[in-house]
Input
Amino acid sequence: MRITPVENKLFGAVVTEVNFSNLSNNDFDALQAALLDYGFLAFPELFPSDEDSIAFGKRFGNLEFAATSVLSNQEVDENRSAGQVLDMDSQRMRMIVGNSFWHTDSTYQPHSAKCGMLSAVVIPEQGGGTALADTRSAYATLDQATKDRVENLSAYHSNQYSQANDLGDFPDIQPGTIYHGEAYLRPLVKVHPETGVKSLIIGRHAFGIPGLARDEGRELLQLLLDHVVSDEARVYEHSYQPGDLLFWDNRALMHRALPYDYTKPRIVIATRIAGDESEFAYNPSDTAAQTGREALANELAALREETSDRQYQATTASSKAVVL
Output
């Protein structure tokens, strides 16, 4: 097995000559250490089976979901046979388009995710890759005044907010889906539970910083996001080949799907490792949750008046939401 740092980047490594079906404990330990160090690992043309991907993910912890094609723009059966490309106005396609904005996975759930994994099956000729950005080096290079400013600030996180803000998409509240009506408060600055390194937890799901006026909070979040992606050395774009697997530490990086012609097939198999107690905000039954619901309701009401010029023109899709 070879682990080679990505050239001209501050993070990331490429792993070759590895066998997922027969991964020794020593090799797994080396991969786990590399993930913590580099933030993401790319496995070119690995062609993992669903069973291998699931088994690998489980070595890192419990799974939030396993070997699902829900991020593909086609329905895919268990044999990976695909149906028609989905309608752009369906809620699933609205979600897929939304993923093209920078984000951190599952910050809109009680536990944000630990790691993410994508395995490429069918990729369009242009676009359709995944970009990653290192929020550790981004935090480290903030000026001291900004570090002092954000040190004790938090923001609410909601997928309903991000869909509305970015796309003018207003999915109905549906318990049991990613559109559950809750908003979870998380610090802007995260201390990694295993390395102790600080990073920024921001991205498209973040809104409503308590203690700041709405416009001031939005301006600060945009300033931080712009800073993260301002240095090419801490942004990596992976252009998939069939069989590639990409695995990243959700506690250290942001990512986004690179746009493509959404009428062309793109099939990726996703597995997500659930966050442990270090990623916990609070439960919907906790007292703090009500404040989050109110903040989200107020923000969505404002966005209803502001997003009619965006892609989905402040509308709600007729199809059901995606369950994740």
Summary: The two ends are 33 Å apart (CA to CA). The domain at 2-304 is CATH 3.60.130.10 (Double-stranded beta-helix). The first strand starts at residue 2 and ends at 5. The longest helix spans residues 288-304.
